[in-house]
Design a protein that fits this description.
- The complex is a heterodimer of chains A (182) and B (132).
- Chain A is an alpha+beta fold.
- Chain A has a single domain, classed as Heat Shock Protein 90 (2-Layer Sandwich).
- In chain A, 36% of the residues lie in helices and 26% in strands.
- In chain A, strands 3-4-2-1-5-6 form a 6-stranded mixed β-sheet.
- In chain B, helix 3 packs parallel to helix 4.
- In chain B, strands 2-1-3-4-5 form a 5-stranded mixed β-sheet, with helices on one face.
- Chain B is of the alpha+beta class and 132 residues long.
- Helices cover 39% and strands 16% of the residues of chain B.
- Chain B has a single domain, classed as Glutaredoxin (3-Layer(aba) Sandwich), CATH 3.40.30.
- In chain B, a hairpin with a 6-residue loop joins strand 3 and strand 4.
- Classes of the chains: A alpha+beta (182), B alpha+beta (132).
- Chains A and B meet through helix 1, helix 4, helix 5 and helix 6 of A and helix 1, helix 2, helix 3 and strand 2 of B.
Chain lengths: 182, 132
């Protein structure tokens, strides 16, 4: 994975597979404490203890199309490379939560990449799922919520290519406002 | 046009978009759209599927073709990522492999617009063995 935005798409896919109807991502950048946190939360079907213990193992996967599951192990390793950490908790029938911490200034910390694209491309792919994305940087905050967007769209499909391009512009300009570096 | 910065800006654009879309497709039937699924699991993402998806959306928009481009999970063709499935209204879905930027443009300009098949099709059997 070249950047964090790609990890985000990857983790969102897990939540979608878990039949989540609400997926939340909170990114907190604290440059004073030299910390970058990402918190993923979903209300999907959840996992039992055995599965939770196994998800960081690359040779464990629930899928039948192939024998490896690299998404979570890659994210965990990339966080640990920067001196950060990774944790996952899950409860059957309630949902799953992932917390990842990176050292913000570490040379191995991947750049964010195209956050707006990652959020919009996933959110518009699954129109029935509510996506909430919060980004905080040193006290400034931006919130993107597909419920609000759908209200504004008032009947126009969130999947129309015009809308997808518009939403990307919306998030991009707001992230620029709170000075998020790509 | 002015940059979209707030929900109010989005609302303004939504209004102009609404009149445009109403004229273009009265039938709000997903079957009347071209549906493209981009395989976006770890394998696809690592091979550049996000860029492929962006190009597809931009190109459909530029050609003013009504299309829905969405992500999907791993289709099992990890060796041929990025992989996309294209379903034209009334036609069987076709899976294309190794879809980079050039290939995506080629698929839209040749297959979607002119109905000419392009190289890179992955023959797929839609019935799984379990169902037989």
């Amino acid at each position: 994975m070249k950047d964090l935005s790609l990890h985000i798409i990857d983790i969102f896919q897990n939540s979608v597979s878990a039949k989540a109807t609400k997926i939340e991502l909170v990114i907190i950048e604290n440059t004073e404490r030299d910390e970058l946190r990402m918190q993923f939360k979903d209300n999907g079907i959840g996992m039992n203890t055995e599965m939770v213990n196994n998800v960081t193992n690359a040779f464990y996967t629930t899928r039948t199309t192939r024998k490896v599951g690299l998404g979570i192990p890659l994210l965990k390793r990339n966080a640990e490379l920067t001196g950060g950490d990774f944790s996952i908790t899950s409860e059957l029938g309630v949902g799953t939560e992932i917390n990842v911490r990176f050292k913000h200034s570490h040379i191995d910390r991947q750049p964010f990449g195209d956050l707006a694209g990652a959020i919009v491309l996933t959110a518009t792919s699954y129109p029935k799922t509510r996506f909430v994305y919060k980004h905080q940087k040193d006290g400034m905050e931006y919130i993107f919520d597909t419920d609000e967007i759908n209200e504004v769209l008032d009947g126009i499909s969130i999947q129309s290519t015009d809308v997808v391009l518009m939403l990307k512009e919306l998030i991009d300009s707001n992230l620029e406002e709170i000075r998020v570096k790509k | 046009m002015e940059k979209i910065k707030s929900l109010a800006d989005l609302k303004k654009r939504q209004e102009s978009l609404k009149s445009k879309i109403d004229l273009r497709d009265r039938a709000n039937d997903p079957e009347s759209h071209i549906q493209v699924k981009v395989s976006m699991s770890t394998c696809g993402i690592a091979s550049g599927a996000k860029h492929t998806m962006e190009i597809l959306i931009q190109e459909f928009n530029r050609h003013k073709i009504d299309a829905i481009v969405t992500q999907t999970g791993c289709m099992g063709f990890c060796f041929a990522e990025p992989t996309i499935e294209v379903k034209k209204p009334g036609a069987e879905p076709i899976i294309f492999g190794y879809v980079n930027e050039e290939k995506a443009i080629e698929i839209i300009e040749k297959y979607v617009i002119n109905d000419v098949l392009v190289e890179g099709i992955i023959p797929a059997n839609y019935q799984s063995i379990d169902n037989k």
